[in-house]
Design a protein that fits this description.
The chain is an alpha/beta fold. The protein has twelve helices and nine strands.
């Protein structure tokens, strides 16, 4: 535990900008350690093979048993089509309620930002059960016996647990670009009101357009309010808040490193023993980029139907203005400032959203 905590401090200091600056090349041709026995490469050999970029990341060194800075890496999407070859095989542990006291974490996310996906990853990394805000508020049996509590608060789909604040160690804040989060939430809502299986279909484009025209302004305010609430709650002690951008967590290149950062944070919490660093990439792939009968399903996005979610130019501008407001509001917070800047760059370079 102490060694992992020291690693967490190192990770926080360096920033763990894993897999930044991706270059396209073949993983195995760059390896310095040929796999002569045909066994699946370990995470150590995999990371050591990724040595063509000059950005600093952290790697778990098996030989020395600690996190060490290494060069960032090259990777291709094709590699991820064979996770057993890349990571070896692993089993996701069955999540159970803790029999001992746990300093529980809040797990807030605006609706449509991957709350369920993060839920499954946290359980995979800890083997401990997660609760939700509604259940936590009424069932004292789960108090301090779950690793985290999923909530959409202060969005109207969540409820306040401020009366239980002393139960909580900190928070895992999952954020997502609103240009994607809002239509993802609408897909969920469309399934619910039509009594459809969760994560089964996307709403028809005409239904999305009607929703967006009636609700986009309010949704953007709610997105901003949600983000502001959790950042303010931990503004005096950011060591208790981990900000997890959905886009990094689901990205083929940055996902394993982001999951490692999450595992280190979880392991710093009293009563929680997270997966070993060398196990994280496999657990990430099994829970976030999992295999279903030989077919990759990215981020649990198994919905059928059109993925088109167009915006008008004025709506596009409203989203951009919201991001710009948040970017400059948090200009003194380098991490959040950078995320907002990346979100703005994403929509500025995308032509698919304007109808």
């Amino acid at each position: 535990m102490n060694g992992i905590r020291r690693a967490a401090s190192l990770a926080a200091a360096i920033g763990l900008s894993c897999f930044a600056g991706i270059a396209i090349s073949n993983l195995y041709t760059s390896s310095h350690e040929p796999n002569n026995n045909n066994q699946a490469p370990t995470l150590r050999s995999y990371r050591r093979a990724l040595s063509n970029i000059d950005h600093t990341i952290l790697n778990y060194n098996h030989e020395h048993g600690r996190m060490e800075p290494v060069n960032a890496a090259t990777i291709t999407d094709a590699v991820f089509k064979d996770p057993k070859h890349l990571y070896g095989d692993c089993e996701i542990p069955k999540a159970r309620f803790a029999t001992h006291q746990v300093a529980t974490l809040y797990q807030p996310a605006f609706p449509g930002s991957g709350s369920r996906m993060t839920y499954e990853l946290v359980e995979a990394l800890t083997g401990m059960t997660i609760s939700n805000d509604h259940n936590y508020a009424i069932d004292p049996n789960v108090h301090n016996h779950v690793v985290s509590v999923k909530t959409h608060y202060p969005n109207r789909n969540g409820i306040s647990l401020e009366a239980f604040d002393d139960h909580f160690h900190g928070a895992l804040l999952v954020i997502r670009n609103p240009i994607k989060a809002i239509p993802s939430f609408f897909n969920f809502w469309y399934e619910r009101i039509n009594h459809l299986e969760n994560h089964s279909v996307r709403a028809p484009t005409e239904e999305w357009i009607a929703f967006r025209d009636a609700n986009l302004g309010e949704q953007l305010k709610s997105w901003r309010k949600h983000m502001d609430y959790w950042l303010k709650k931990y503004e005096n002690d950011r060591s208790k808040l981990l900000v997890l951008p959905y886009e990094r967590l689901t990205d083929n290149a940055r996902g394993p490193g982001t999951a490692l950062k999450l595992a280190l944070f979880l392991d710093s919490v009293e009563g929680v023993n997270a997966a070993k660093p060398e196990e994280v990439a496999c657990l990430w792939h099994r829970s976030v980029k999992y295999m279903d009968e030989g077919e990759t399903v990215e981020g649990h996005a198994v919905r059928s139907g059109s993925s088109a979610t167009p915006y008008t130019q004025s709506q596009f501008d409203a989203i951009r203005n919201t991001l710009q407001t948040q970017k400059w509001k948090y200009k003194d917070d380098p991490e959040v400032f950078k995320i907002m800047d990346q979100y703005m760059r994403h929509i500025q370079h995308s032509w698919l959203y304007v109808s």
